[in-house]
Write a structure and sequence with these properties.
mainly alpha; 0% strand; 3 helices
């Protein structure tokens, strides 16, 4: 895909970390503000990992995909 700027290892890592953060946030391990932060960051990592495009990478003109 033309607009993908994440390598395979980057995408896998983002999805795994996103799932862990979402599990911690929704599982009741972390509550309050930290739980909300985990949910937001976990969702962002999961979505960018599944799509393969990171807006921050795009703005910084950085790519992990060759």
């Amino acid at each position: 895909m033309k607009y993908m700027n994440e390598a395979g290892w980057d995408r896998i890592l983002r999805v795994l970390v996103g799932i862990v953060l979402l599990a911690l946030g929704f599982g009741g391990v972390t509550v309050g503000t930290l739980g909300l932060v985990f949910k937001i960051i976990g969702t962002l990592l999961l979505v960018t990992g599944l799509v393969g495009f990171c807006p921050v990478y795009y703005l910084l003109k950085f790519r992990t995909k060759k």
